[in-house]
Amino acid sequence: MTKQRITVIRGDGIGPDIIDSALQILDKVGCDFEYDFADAGLVALENHGELLPEETLDLIAKNKVTLKGPLTTPVGEGFTSINVSLRKKFQLYANLRPVLSFKGTKARYENIDIVTVRENTEGMYSGLGQVVSEDGNEAEAKSLITRAGAERILTYAYEMAIRDGRKKVTAVHKANILKSTSGLFLKVAREVAQRYPQIESSEMIVDNCCMQLVMNPHQFDVIVTTNLFGDILSDLCAGLVGGLGMAPGANIGQDCAIFEAVHGSAPDIAGKNLANPTSVILASIQMLEYLNMGDQAEKIRYALKQVIESGDRTTRDLGGEHGTSDFTQAMLERL
């Protein structure tokens, strides 16, 4: 039997530390993957003269499954977001951002279990019509929503809800003001909802959704929305469970997927053995579920829950005094 090959992008800053932690855990649980390592971000710029080398793109396309650490896109003109480039290149139209609360964190809420399903290729992040006037006094950008793109992401959200035994899908929009783009998304949301009578459907204006998430997050199960709103709401949801260090992300396309830590590269603590690897461990769990390796995914999730709840060798952001390697060792012992 051919082994599953995984493209691994260690990333910048704390990326190598947390990715290596996740790989040790995947190996310990018996995944038996073959890893192909590739560069992207600042390390790629230094080694290859570009942020996204062709060799890296080829490996992502070849293996179809990628585990990625945080990347840094240099600030300033001339550099396109690496994450946006990858999503567009491989048509990774669905961005899945689950948040799950663990006892033992500094989260403000318990029993949170919400998935934000974000359209990943259209809307304000499509990169269309970005213009700044010659005098620098005016700037504009274009938002594009298509019926096909909206229907694809909404259908994905409902199919995921059925597959994972979830009960409710909330479509988030701003159709009261953005009557064309958000209006089309809401119209398609109502049409798709009719096909899934077994799932409770609701709709919510984005600003009200932000308030409701803070006041009563337990009313939410699956949130599905457009690109810009999804970017904001998924980070808000991460704040409910302790921050971006507790939140993974999956970018899913027709035949390709990239799983990632969604936080930044934290260069101030890079190489200091201080980073919490939970985000990328959770991303690896998403990857296993995508590969229909649910048993291994559940073992890792259970071990992670035990480590965080017990406070055994946890990192500073979780209230402990330990570093990445100690946290990883605590995970390995439980596995």
From TrEMBL:
Keyword tRNA processing on this protein?
A: no
GO terms for biological process, alphabetical: isocitrate metabolic process; tricarboxylic acid cycle
Keyword Oxidoreductase found: yes
Listed GO MF terms = isocitrate dehydrogenase (NAD+) activity; isocitrate dehydrogenase (NADP+) activity; magnesium ion binding; NAD binding
Under the heading InterPro entries, the entry gives: IsoCit/isopropylmalate_DH_CS (IPR019818), IsoPropMal-DH-like_dom (IPR024084)
Q: Which SUPFAM superfamilies has this protein been placed in?
A: Isocitrate/Isopropylmalate dehydrogenase-like
Could you list this entry's UniProt keywords, alphabetically sorted.
Oxidoreductase
Class of enzymatic activity (EC top level): oxidoreductase
The family database entries (Pfam families) matched by this protein are listed as:
Iso_dh (PF00180)
Source domain of life is Bacteria
Q: Which residues form the Isopropylmalate dehydrogenase-like domain?
A: 5-331
- Its EC number is 1.1.1.42
UniProt similarity note? Belongs to the isocitrate and isopropylmalate dehydrogenases family.
Write the protein's name.
Isocitrate dehydrogenase (NADP)
Lineage, opening ranks: Bacteria, Pseudomonadati, Pseudomonadota, Gammaproteobacteria, Alteromonadales
